[in-house]
Each structure stands twice: as structure tokens, then as C-alpha cells.
Amino acid sequence: MNEENMLTADEVVELMNERKIGELRSKLGDMQVEDIAELFFELPEEYHARFFRLLHKEKAADVFAEMDPDLQESLITSFTDQELKYVLDEMFLDDTVDMIEEMPANVVQRIIANSTPDDRRAINELLKYPPDSAGGIMTTEFVRLEQHMTVRDAIREIRRVGVNKETIYTCYVTDDNRHLLGIVTAKDLLLSQSDTPIADLMEENVISIGTLEDQETATQLMTKYSLMALPVVDTENRLVGIITVDDALDVIHDETEEDFSKMAAMTPTETPYLRTTPWRLWLNRFPWLALLMVSATFTGIIISSFEAALAKVVVLTAFIPMLMDTGGNSGSQSSVTVIRNLSLGEVTMGDWWRIAWKEARVAILCGLSLGALAFGKVMLVDRLIMHNSAVTWQVAWTVAATLCVTILIAKLIGCLLPIFARRIGLDPAVVASPFITTIVDAISLLVYFAIARATIPGLA
Fold it and tell me: Of 4, 218, 317, 414, which residue is the least packed, with the fewest Cβ within 10 Å?
């Protein structure tokens, strides 16, 4: 759809106030579900219910599934039982379960009351699984074929049940006890003879995942093997559901946002920023800031213990920010790289020595090049151009050597700390930039003053 055909909130309000309902419905018919859902965020609250009722029934449930939980709750409150039942009947079960997990108890009771008995049983079954597990994000709405079927039988079955299934492009072949035997695609069925047994067409080497496996593992499998859907099986290899690509993308999006929050020393939140209260933002940020502030006092203690040395060679103080920043940045580079590869499954905890050896070599190259650059900068800029006689070659050497050692230590800490965190059951993102920077700051100061005492006369 072209952007010029997009409706704005102001245009919707104007059309509704002028009672141009036919024109509004016509324009909404050309819009994508996601774009209509975004309109709700911009509309005044008093227009929400009226606007939703203008949607074509074919789109209403899809738009509802794309909405923010707060908006869903508000609309459910305004729905009649008949309207709510229609929306629930048209929604896929995994979307319904996702919504229920975000709703208060009174709204959940009403949703359950207006669901069909079959849907109610399926919802209760899905709610048994942890929200961050494969079972928690799967849907039970898939096409299941039995191994004794022919292509003709399979196509007939797809036509019978496919309209209510989340995907029909990949069908799953089981035995009478629902044990997963293989998969067959709609393409294979359409291009084969009608009397061909699907047992001859199915792919038996099926990638699957257990119900209690982590949702990130599911997304990694789907990414690695380029799957549009991933079958979920129980402990006895019975097919209980599938994870579709849209659910996998949602998990990737949520996990990425969560990691970014943790790496920035904030508690993750699922509420959109503009809908999050200042109080909630304070609760998410203050504990982390307080912890980092307290941990940063170690750097102050180190500086205080070397006051005598700094008093003798005051110029050393001028280079402390550069050394601390460079060390922190070096550690952050390594930690982000390792965290990303851990999350993608490209490295494992058993690869720690290979990671450390690679980062050590990178650190030596970075340290030597930056050390040489720093030595030249101190001697040229600080001594010659700025005519600072306190800057001697010993001071320049101290800065350069500190950089080399600090970068090496920072990169080793940055690459190994996330692996250690994973080993003890913590999210590697928790120990990212802020904590690594704080640790490296303290170490860089200790190295700095140790080298200064060994190099500069009168400081020993």
C-alpha cells in the first residue's frame, strides 16, 4: 500500500464526525492489519470502540491481535458478549493465550466464559507451559495427516480443516498415536499423483523441539534451518503443536529488546516507552544505577590511595579519563560480540579457550597500535604543541604501556565474563557494558599507577 493512501488519526476522526462511514470503511479495506492497529494508538480513547466496530469482520480479529494489551483490555470492556465471542472465534489460539497472559483476572474470566469448550481446553493446555518455553509460544492449530493417507486424502483433509489452521504450507504426518513421523509440504501434494501414499512423499528427517525447551532455542533452530514452522513434541515424540515464523520473530524482537535493556543497566519492560510511567522507569533504572554507583567507589578508593603519587606528578591525572574510557570500550566490544554469538548459538561455553585466545590476539594488536598512537599523541600534542614541560617521555611511556596492558585485560574480561555468567545460570547481557566498564576502570587505575611507579623517577 502506498503511503499517500494511509489514513491518519485526524482523518479518521473527521470522517467519523461527518458520518462518512462508507468512505471510511472503503479506505480501511485497503489498509494492512498492522497499520490499522497503529491507528488505535493515535485515536482518542472515546473513538476506539466505534472505530473497531467499523472494521470488516474478516479484519477485526487480526487487528485486535496486533494491539497493545492495555488497548485490548479497554476494548474487551466495551464489547458485548457476542462481539467478544466473535473476536475470540476468529483469533488463533496462540494469540488468545498471549492476550490472556497479559489480562487481569476479571477479564480472563470473561474471555474463558466466551470461548468454546474445545478452545477452552486448548487454552488451558497451553497455559500449563512456562511463557518462555517452546510450549508457551506454540499453537495447536496445524494440519495433521496420518501415514496411511494418499495425496487425495491429504488434500481433502486440508480443505476440511485448513481454514482454521495457522498454516497449511507444511503438514505433519503422524501415526495413530500422534507420534511425529515426518512432514510433507503443500507443494509436494499438489505436484504428486492423487493415489500416491504420503508416506512416499514425506521428509522423515524432521527438526523438532521439546515443549519445555527455551523459546530462544526454538528461534535458533528456525533460523539455522530456515524453517517456516517448527514442530513441538512431548517427551514421547508426540506432536502437540508448532511454532510459526511470526511467533519466532516476536521472540527475537522481545529477546533483543530485553538484552539491550540489560546491557544498558535497566530492568526490561514490555510496556511501550510512551505508555510507561516515570515511576516505573525510575524503578527500572534506579537499582542498577545505585549498584553501579556503589561499585564505582572502588575507583575512588584506588585514586585516593595514590594521592601522594599524583601530587608529585600531577600531569598523570589528565590521562586517567582516556585510559578508563579506552579500557571500558575495549571490554564492551568483546562482551557484545560474545553475547551476540552466544545468543545465536554460534559459540558455546565449551569454546571459552578459543574465544579467549582469539580476543587475546586482537587485544595485542589493538593495544600495540593504540599504545603507539597514544605515545605519539602525548609527546606531540601535550608536550610540543601545548608546551607542557611536565609531560616527559616517561609519562608518555606510562600511558602507552598502560593502554596495552589495560586493553588486553579488558578484552579478556569482556569475552570471559558473559560465558561465566551463562555457566552459573545468569543472562550474559546482565554483565555487559556497565559492569565490565566498572571492573576495567578499577583494574586500569591499578595498572596505571603500578607502571608509573616503576617508570617515573621519584614515584617508587
Answer: 4
For residues 445 and 405, give the distance between their C-alpha atoms in angstroms, rounded to a whole number: 11
Q: What is the pLDDT of residue 251?
A: 87
Superfamily for domain range 3-128: MgtE N-terminal domain-like (1.25.60.10)
* % pLDDT > 90, the chain: 27
Helices (H), 128-244: 134-137, 151-161, 186-190, 198-201, 215-224
Which residues lie below 8 Å from residue 311, measured CB to CB, with a gap of 6+? Answer: none
CATH number of 273-455: 1.10.357.20
Please determine whether the domains at 3-128 and 144-244 fall in the same fold group of CATH.
no
Cell of 192: 504428486
Architecture of domain 144-244: Roll (3.10)
| Cβ atoms of residues 238 and 177 within 8 Å | yes
In 3D, which of 39, 80, 43, 81 has the Cα closest to residue 59? 39
Looking at residue 287, what is its pLDDT?
73
- pLDDT, average across residues 322-328: 88
Per DSSP, helices labelled H in 313-377 are: 320-344, 352-377
Residue 310 near residue 316, CB atoms below 8 Å: yes
Assign 375 a pLDDT band (cuts: 50, 70, 90): very high
Domain regions of the chain by residue span: 3-128, 144-244, 273-455
- List, in order, residues 6 or more apart from 84 with CB less than 8 Å away: 76, 110, 111, 114
